[in-house]
Write a structure and sequence with these properties.
The structure holds 2 protein chains of 2 kinds.
Chain A (H helix, E strand, L loop, with lengths): L13 H14 L8 H14 L3 H8 L18 H12 L6 H9 L4 H25 L21 E2 L7 E2 L15 H4 L5 H15 L12 H14 L5
Antiparallel strand pairs in A: 1-2
Chain B lengths: L9 H12 L3 H40 L5 H14 L5 H9 L1
Helix pairs in contact in B: 1-2
Classes of the chains: A mainly alpha, B mainly alpha.
Chain lengths: 236, 98
């Protein structure tokens, strides 16, 4: 499933290479609510979900309740965490508050939920890009020993999401210069998850009109973005 | 025949986006020469980058269950009114959830 990094013949911009290398290093290091081994396992579990027969059967079913079975796992993560990572990877468009409540009831804390969700989102960017460019996701380094910081943000707003989001009336100091759309507020319960996701995502959506030879303009960017969201059945 | 969305090389962009998001590197390779012809090498890589980025951000949005921003909500209200969707019994339920 994975392959070592090899030079591509395509001109990958330096700004991409830098943030992808940083993201890969972060996948195996302790962050706020998981140690490096658990974060590495979450990324490996997300990769394994794409080969999980139970996930494939559920994703194809009209009703999730009509399909019984167990995930094919690649780790010893807690069952609730496995369910979170697999569903978010293979069937993100049909997540509900009831499902979120079940994951939390299984023993996953909201902070862990947010960090894991951000990690799946971030690793999806890295793996989808690497697969298109080099044929497979990059191999993960061994986990780095370290202790989670347990940092959380208590300055949150309720906008009807499953968890509180960034509160612009009382912003966490680290978020003072963040843009306002709800998607940018989503991971604010765990500040390190905000940083991790947006540092990788940023160059992927940044206009590059400074390059006069570009033939891929704003309307095409939005078109690709919209098509991707449609394929994922994401209606945000 | 699929729509091109009214953007330059839209039909091609639909194909390459699907190849990227569905993680079919062999399809990406098959589309590469035409992509370089239409978008340039840098543009082809950027198109892959946008699709990859949104493949990730879609998951963040869905995991957190964030609602549409207010500025989109006002457009949505007009759509709901125009289409009379709220007159269906399930419409009200969906509207509350959104």
């Amino acid at each position: 499933m994975t392959a070592p990094a090899e030079p591509t013949t395509l001109p990958v911009p330096d700004e991409f290479t830098e943030v992808h290398e940083a993201a890969l290093a972060g996948f195996v290091q302790a962050a706020s609510w998981f140690d490096g081994a658990t974060r590495r396992a979450i990324v490996e579990e997300s990769r394994a979900a794409r080969e999980c027969a139970f996930c494939a059967e559920r994703a194809a079913a009209l009703s999730l309740a009509s399909v019984a079975g167990e995930h094919t796992t690649a780790s010893d993560l807690a069952p609730g965490l496995v369910e979170l990572v697999h569903r978010l990877t293979t069937d993100p468009g049909r997540l509900t508050r009831a499902w979120f409540d079940e994951v939390i009831a299984s023993g996953i804390t909201p902070e862990q939920y947010v960090e894991a969700s951000g990690l799946v989102g971030t690793s999806t960017i890295a793996d989808t890009f690497a697969t298109a460019i080099d044929g497979a996701p990059r191999e993960l380094a061994p986990a780095v020993h370290g202790t989670p910081s347990l940092e959380r943000n208590d300055q949150l707003a309720d906008v009807g999401a499953y968890v509180g989001v960034m509160d612009y009336e009382h912003p966490h100091p680290r978020f003072a210069d963040r843009p306002a759309p709800n998607i940018c507020r989503a991971l604010a319960l765990v500040p390190s998850a905000v940083d991790e996701f947006w540092e990788l995502f940023g160059p992927h959506y940044r206009p590059w009109t400074a390059q006069p030879e570009h033939k891929f303009g704003r309307s095409q960017i939005e078109f690709v973005a919209s098509r991707t969201s449609a394929l994922n059945e994401c209606f945000y | 025949m699929e729509s091109d969305g009214g953007v330059p090389h839209g039909s091609y962009l639909l194909e390459v986006t699907e190849a990227v998001v569905k993680r079919r590197p062999e399809d990406v390779r098959a589309l590469q020469a035409r992509g370089i012809e239409l978008l340039g090498e840098a543009g082809f890589v950027r198109a892959i980058g946008v699709a990859s980025g949104f493949d990730g951000i879609n998951r963040v949005a869905d995991a957190i269950g964030i609602p549409l921003d207010d500025r989109f909500g006002s457009l949505e209200d007009a759509f709901w009114e125009q289409t009379k969707i709220n007159e269906y019994s399930e419409g009200a339920v969906v509207r509350i959830r959104s």
